[in-house]
Structure formats: C-alpha cells, structure tokens
Amino acid sequence: MDPNAPFAPRGDKQQLEEGLDFAPKFDKDGLIPALAMDATTREPLMLAYMNTESLRRTLEIGEAVYWSRSRKEYWHKGATSGHVQKIVEILTDCDQDALILMVEQIGAGACHTGRGSCFYRKLTAIEGQAKLEWTGAEKSFDPDTVYRKH
To answer: What CATH code would you report for 13-113?
Structure first.
C-alpha cells in the first residue's frame, strides 16, 4: 500500500502551490501539524498532529482524528470526553505542510484542562522577560470527571 494514499504524490513547486491535488508534506516523523479552529468564531481551539492514517480517518468519518505523540496512538477527539470536533472545512497552506481544521466543537470544550480552547494564556514581555497572562478563559468542564481513569 502506498504510504501516502489516498493523497497525491508531491510534485514540483508549481503543482504544490498552484495545483488542485492534495499532496500533504509530513515531517521526518510522518506528522503534519493541524490547528483546530472554531468554524463560527474563528477562535483557535487546539494544535495537534496527524499522520497519513489519522488524516485519512478524519476525511472518512468527518470528525477530527489525531496522532498522539506522547501516547503513540490514534486519538479520535471526543471518544472519551464526548467533546467531538465535526469537520466543517480543512485548509492547507501554500506548500501543504500544515493544516487548519475548521470544526464545529461539540461539547463543553477542546482542552484537556477543562477549557473551551487550549489557548487560554497570552505571552507578554514584562521588563524584558517573557511572561504568561490569563486571557480570562474559565473552565467549562471538570477534566477529572470527564477523563477519569477506568
């Protein structure tokens, strides 16, 4: 089986930047970054990674499936929590090495910390030092209840 199936082979720069064949570029570990964004509010929800199979599964079922780098397993978003990400649209950048998943976030949130978005702090420079500040994002669910170990 072609390891890049069902995607097109990577062609030249012209084909990648101007053509209509989807030929994603996976990194040396076989991964491509995928930024999930709320399709309505355009808020960034989370950044994860996909491999060929998780991207194929995502296209097949219409819900986000990622590859967990830490657990080394497929991760169907919402399978445990019920907080599913239904795909509305998938965008790729000019050289097809990054994806944006425009999703309908079902459930209380996308972040395992219990918030709607994983991007709940902002970076600021205070007296030349990089610091984080809260953006005001409160927890929308109790992660200990949702992700309890069985």
So the answer is: 3.10.20.810
